[in-house]
Amino acid sequence: MLEVFLCCSPADQEVAAAITARLEHGAEVTVALDDSETESAAVKWKWGRSCAAILLLLSPEAVPPRVSRADWGELLDHIASNADPPIGSLLVRGCGYPRLLERRHFFRWDGGPREALRAIEKWALRLHRLPPPSFVPAQLPWFEGREKELDLLWETLVDRAGTAVVVNPAAASGKTSLAQEFSRRAGAHFRDLFWVPCGDRSPASIVADLAQQIGAECQGEAGETFAGLVDLAGRHRVLLVLDDLQPILAVPADSQGRASVLVTTRSTQVEAPPAAQVIRIDKGPEFPLAVPDNPVDLRLWRAMAVCRPSGFPLELAARIAGIEPADVPGACARLIQGRLVDPFDGGRLRLNALSLAAAGDLLEMERRRHAEVVYEAVSGWAKNPDFNKQYGAELIPAFQWATSADWPLACALVRHAFALLRHYGRLAEGTELLVALGNAADLRSDRQVSDECSWELSWIRGVPYRGAYRGSACGDQLSFDFGV
Length: 484
What we know:
There is one protein chain. By secondary structure, the protein is α/β, with parallel strands linked by helices. The chain has 4 domains: 2-128, Rossmann fold, CATH 3.40.50.2300; 147-280, Rossmann fold (3-Layer(aba) Sandwich), CATH 3.40.50; 287-362, Arc Repressor Mutant, subunit A; 365-484. It is built from 18 helices and 13 strands. The protein has helices at 13-27, 41-44, 69-80, 113-125, 147-158, 175-186, 203-214, 222-233, 295-304, 314-321, 328-337, 353-359, 364-379, 387-391, 395-405, 407-423, 427-444, 447-461; strands at 2-7, 29-34, 53-58, 87-91, 106-108, 163-167, 192-197, 238-243, 260-265, 277-280, 312-313, 342-345, 348-350. A 5-stranded parallel sheet has the order 2-1-3-4-5, with helices on one face. A 5-stranded parallel sheet has the order 7-8-9-6-10, sandwiched between helices. It starts with a strand and ends in a 23-residue tail after the last helix.
């Protein structure tokens, strides 16, 4: 664990204790404290040169009585040359100090302890030289207000490890937008951000998504696995967002005490830890939708309306719409301006409920093309390591449409998707697809496909197979080759 050297006077021990507690829990660093009276901060900083960073607490008792080059020269040379370790300064009480200290990593206690602690924690967390976060929320150009709710989220999720549940039963009430804007503003206070769209997804799918994001295996019953994954993620200071969670999974408490969990939901029945902060929000103001009259914009919007609204890649919608790549950025920008779609994360977008309703149900051509594009992608998944992140959530809606409209496509889609999900260790999701395909095959009296699914499920579930097309098996055979 990284070490931060903190030097102060005995008079500032209370402030030093607050900083130590905040950094050791929130920034995951060890604080080495020197609060002796022997030397001033202008001298004591040198004993921290082997640490990852140095923090000076400035007060009349901690610094020389006069600002002179003789006292501060070595420290100022260190700062001016951008040498390691970096040095931060906190002005606890008014005193004399070189103004060069204000150029970088300078904090003020008189602006409010809460703001100072947040800023110091943010600085210390960056000492870890972290990789880019898993989720990088985009700025919503139209977002305003909700300051009271945002303040409460900061207190609950940033100032400590906690759980907040944002509730409103209405669609398009602003729950997801609030979560996205908070994640954008507060993201630098966490080592990583994990965003899991829930909606109508099964527990196995939600759990598998989280497991993939944190780089863990996903095995066992969904509820227990979910609790274990949250516990695993909570070994570090992370933010987990469960968007549009339904009461199919309980939100576990983080026993490690580092993760903060933000839930948005339309249900008051979601199980959360007793200490969770419940935030019931009012529905946001109504806004007019600018339905496009430009043919290119209209085609792109209709294509977006058949993707999963909680987050889809722009590339997918563009392929469905069949528009020229050069026309895509402009059309997307106009749809964002018209409030028909919201930027989400990198190349992904979100479609709000009002826009989805305005698009209507007469989208059969787009739904077919959606299923075809997803099939094209899933059949070549071995050559596209990012497939699961880009298209994984699109498998179910594509399959559901194809089940009733293009049965051969539905079968082929599941065959390839099962191979993909098994490869990524998401066997529970693959099993759900096999069960759904088998049930659909039974309704169509397609005995061959039904038998294929029974054969595959026999080894997954460890039960005997007694189908019409193969001999008896005891469930220990290798996976049946679906022709992938």
